[in-house]
Amino acid sequence: MGEIKSTLDLVMEKTRHLSMSEEEKTAQQKDDTRKALKGLILKYRDQIIKQTQFEKELGQVSAMNDIDARPVLISELCAAIDPGQDNASPIALLKNICKIDTTPLESILNEYDQRVALAKDERIAEVNEQLFKARKISGSAVVPNLESDTGWKARTGSVKNDYRKRLDQQIEKIPVD
Predict the structure, then answer these.
(1) Phi, psi of 146 (to 5 degrees)
(2) Residue ending a domain, choose from 34, 67, 100
């Protein structure tokens, strides 16, 4: 009677003659580094580790994969920056670990926050005025729910796209090497 082989045995048997080229090995190392750094960034963002521990583990990731993790780290941190979100962690790591001047990025993010706050105040005033005209409802207890307002979502989406483009242009200027 024939031997029953596991799936792993079958795969190993079929692929034993395959080997990775140097480009594939380098790409795999970069991918492994990227995954490790994403996890490390999340740990830092969730305050599971502090900056000193981050630096220590960053060194381990670089040594483990025998690759310069700095360009990958910068890329991952820049990808983590998003207008309207808490960007303190990626900005702090860019500034303190990667030694990058984050002033232009912070300026764009602060400008975005101010613009959204102003637009929010304007939209609340518009909705309050509409309520007063249509139903004679007014007062400090009237608080419009902007999260369910499609006009508000469209307006903030447009603003966010504009600032995302500005951020991306600024990020492109960051020296990776």
Answers:
(1) -70, -25
(2) 100
Q: pTM here?
A: 0.77
Q: Tokens in use for 6?
A: 């596991």
Tell me the pLDDT tens digit for each residue of 29-82: 888 889 999 999 999 999 999 999 999 999 888 888 778 888 999 999 999 999
The reply to whether 3 falls in a domain is no
The answer to whether the CB of 69 falls within 8 A of the CB of 54 is: no
Token pair of 139, please?
A: 């007062």
Rounded to whole angstroms, the Cα distance separating 140 from 127 reads 13
Of 100, 132, 152, which residue constitutes the final position of a domain?
100
pLDDT in tens, 78-127: 999 999 999 999 999 999 999 999 999 999 999 999 999 999 999 888 88
Number of C-beta neighbours around residue 74 at 10 A: 22
Q: What is the rounded CA–CA span in Å between residue 85 and residue 123?
A: 21
What mean pLDDT value characterizes the chain?
88
| C-alpha span between 168 and 79 (Å, rounded) | 9
* Within a domain: 48: yes
